[in-house]
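Handout, section B. The chain below has 53 residues.
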Amino acid sequence: MQRASELLIKGELSIQEVALSVGFKHVGYFSRLFRKTYHNTPLAYKRNHLPFK
């Protein structure tokens, strides 16, 4: 999950691409585990860590 959070913060990959790159075949399962770990969905986590434009 640490690597997934790093990839999300970089903001270059979609949620699906992040899930696949860290070894998950199902995005839904990745999202559930991510939310359980970080108390936020991957999309919300990504949005909260992107720089303002």
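Note. Residues 2-49 form a domain with the Arc Repressor Mutant, subunit A fold (CATH 1.10.10.60). Compare this with the example in section A.
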